[in-house]
Amino acid sequence: MNYLLHLVIYLSIYAIVALSLNIVVGYCGRLTLAHAGYYAVGSYAYALVALKLGWGFLPALALAVGLAAVLSLAVSLPTWRLKGDFFVMVSLAVQTLIFSVIYNWTSADDEPGTWKNLTNGPFGLAGVPSPAIIGIKFDTLSSMALLSLVLAGVCFLLGWALLHSPWGRVLQAMRDDELVARGLGKNVRLLKAEAFAVACGMAAVGGAIYASYVSYVDPSLAS
After folding, report:
1. Other C-beta atoms lying within 10 Å of the C-beta of residue 92
2. Residue 85: what pLDDT?
3. Which residues contact 132 (CB under 8 A, 6 or more apart)?
4. pTM strictly above 0.90
5. Alpha helices (H) in 53-183, listed in sequence order
6. In this structure, how many other beta carbons lie within 10 angstroms of the beta carbon of residue 122?
7. Count of CB atoms within 10 A of residue 153's CB?
8. Distance of CA 190 to the CA centre of its chain
9. Domain boundaries in the chain?
10. What are the residue ranges in the chain where pLDDT is below 50?
11. CB-based contact 149:156 (threshold 8 Å)
12. What is the pLDDT of residues 148-184, one digit of tens each?
């Protein structure tokens, strides 16, 4: 039974990440190799504020989502000019940059989580606290599985609502023929930035769930 609950948690995490990637690849028509990097950004952001600042689950999750959405500009800005293989290479460069920052932001003389040793390099950050919401702790497999399923359901409903809204239909129109979308007066640049922000923020949700469940994050999350 414990193993089944463990699988439920991991399947929920992967479902969230897959849904977020589908926004970029399926609906935006852009193949990105940087998505794991934003998953790792969510994991580390959540781990740091929960571990070092004592933030609760929801505030830490909100910060992780916001940070990943802001950093998504590193990928979405090049899409204004680059397409096809050129954009794929830029996204790979961003992925490599995120991994390098996480792997190398370390100092043997400082405590993990401090400015000079923010990520603790290849050793990662251990002891991430279990999530708690309004005093309710999710520190058992069954409660963690329930929380991950609820968050996956929220992400699915949010994604479905967005992609079946006028915003989502314009996104598909841009994917099928960007020139036509421009001709109809749609702000294609803004649309791409919004799509990447939503996708990267959603990937960060998966990363935060992972960090709170495993209680440990390391640079392999970004690879």
Report:
1. 14
2. 82
3. 56, 57, 138
4. yes
5. 57-71, 73-76, 84-104, 141-163, 166-176, 178-183
6. 12
7. 13
8. 20
9. 2-222
10. none
11. no
12. 999 999 999 999 999 899 898 989 888 888 888 888 7
